[in-house]
Amino acid sequence: MGLGTTRRDTCTPLLAIISQVGRRMAPRWRLALWYGALILAANLLWEVAHLPLYTLWRTASRSEQAFAVLHCTGGDALIALLSLGLAVLVHRSWRWPEERFGRVLLAATLIGVAYTVFSEWWNVEWRGAWAYASAMPRLPWVGTGVTPLLQWVLLPPLCLWGARRLSERDSALGAK
Question: What angle do CA 11, 12, 18 make, to 5 degrees?
Answer without folding.
Answer: 90
